[in-house]
């Protein structure tokens, strides 16, 4: 038979190279995050934390064949609440068209952010 089967096609991966690469990446991340050079730390001492833009896309152009992302409002609301707790100015946008997204980003880029720690841009979508 030319078709696959779960018994034959769903084998446990024993490729040691894959496992080693994953461990190496994880170890490198942990090591790097524990050995921070104070000279390379990001300045977070400004008067304002900064602006955070959240673009949440629930619905998609029908030709893409993507299902609506039901329940994504809860994720967006949780992120918005957490960012506000971190003293960000948060602006949320739902289901904007591409040109509208670019307009909002351009508007934010034109603002004065010189007394802010950082700028955060988040896209919530499929994938």
From TrEMBL:
Residues 69-96 form a coiled coil. Residues 48-127 form the Caspase family p20 domain. It comes from Nothobranchius pienaari. The keyword Acyltransferase does not apply. This is Caspase 6, apoptosis-related cysteine peptidase. GO terms for cellular component: cytoplasm. Gene3D superfamilies: 3.40.50.1460. One of its GO terms (biological process) is positive regulation of neuron apoptotic process. Belongs to the peptidase C14A family.
């Amino acid at each position: 038979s030319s078709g696959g089967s779960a018994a034959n096609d769903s084998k446990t991966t024993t490729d040691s190279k894959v496992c080693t690469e994953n461990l190496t990446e994880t170890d490198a991340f942990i090591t790097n995050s524990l050995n921070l050079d104070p000279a390379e730390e990001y300045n977070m001492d400004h008067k304002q934390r900064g602006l955070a833009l959240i673009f949440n896309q629930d619905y998609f152009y029908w030709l893409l064949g993507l299902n609506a992302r039901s329940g994504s409002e809860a994720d967006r609301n949780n992120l918005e609440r957490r960012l506000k707790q971190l003293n960000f100015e948060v602006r949320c946008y739902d289901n904007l068209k591409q040109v509208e997204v670019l307009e909002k980003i351009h508007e934010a880029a034109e603002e004065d952010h010189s007394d802010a720690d950082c700028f955060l841009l988040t896209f919530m979508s499929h994938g």
